[in-house]
From TrEMBL:
Short name of one Pfam family: LUD_dom
InterPro entries tied to this protein: FTHF_cligase-like_sf, LUD_dom, NagB/RpiA_transferase-like
Protein name listed in UniProt: LUD domain-containing protein
Limits of the LUD domain: 32-213
The organism of origin for this protein: Acrocarpospora corrugata
The organism's place on the tree of life at top rank: Bacteria
Length: 219
């Protein structure tokens, strides 16, 4: 989700924090229910499901047909097989499939920034319902914040944290090192945090949906 850095920014690798595995433990059912209640109070529709398979089946029932659906880069979506269903099943109008046919960079940016629906994840959810997402380029953040008419976030229980300070620590001490490991293996370059989005509340009725998954899913 964060992407990879350019060669000019590789000096950031020297300041990268070591991986903190404390953030891999899934929240208890009690904490998960507190997060669900907090999200509902902040204007989100919330579903709590037992498994990645349940999340995939639910998301496919929530998605409209005949609308542009953008799948944000996300290990959560990949692990649950959600992006594959959206992009390859032919049941939905995939923005990523459209992007593959475009040579115009500006048109690609606009298409990804304002789809009808965005499906993705976040890096942390506080027990009172605040969500945090980091990105290197910010490519998915505009659709998360308001560019998409509807947004669906799928979130593993290990991402539930007590408060906003802990959420930001999770981003820096766990998510960034994990993404840098992946980027080093794939691109030969580490990742960076370019932008952080804090989602405090959803004011448009029925715009935002959060699917909380019991157990560890994604990073």
């Amino acid at each position: 989700m964060m992407g990879f850095m350019t060669k000019g920014n590789q000096s950031a690798l020297a300041g990268l924090s070591p991986l903190d595995d404390v953030f891999t433990a899934p929240a208890t059912d009690e904490r998960l229910e507190r997060a669900a209640a907090g999200l509902r109070e902040r204007g989100y529709s919330v579903h709590v499901v037992d498994s990645p398979d349940d999340a995939r089946e639910l998301v496919t029932t929530l998605l409209p047909t005949g609308k542009d659906v953008f799948t944000a880069a996300s290990a959560t979506l990949e692990n649950a097989g959600i992006n594959k269903v959206i992009e390859e099943s032919g049941r939905f109008r995939s923005v990523r499939a459209q992007l593959a046919t475009l040579d115009d960079a500006d048109a690609s940016i606009k298409l990804g920034a304002a789809p009808d629906v965005v499906v993705g994840s976040v890096h942390a959810v506080t027990e009172d319902g605040v969500m945090v997402c980091a990105s290197a380029s910010g490519s998915q953040l505009s659709s998360y914040a308001g560019g998409a008419r509807r947004a669906i976030w799928v979130v593993g229980a290990q991402k539930v944290v007590p408060d906003l300070d802990t959420a930001l620590r999770r981003v820096r001490l766990y998510c960034l090192p994990k993404e840098s490991e992946r980027c080093m293996a794939v691109y030969g370059q580490p990742s960076i945090i370019g932008k952080i989005l804090i989602l405090e509340r959803e004011y448009l009725p029925e715009r935002g949906t959060v699917v909380l998954v019991r157990g560890e899913l994604g990073v």
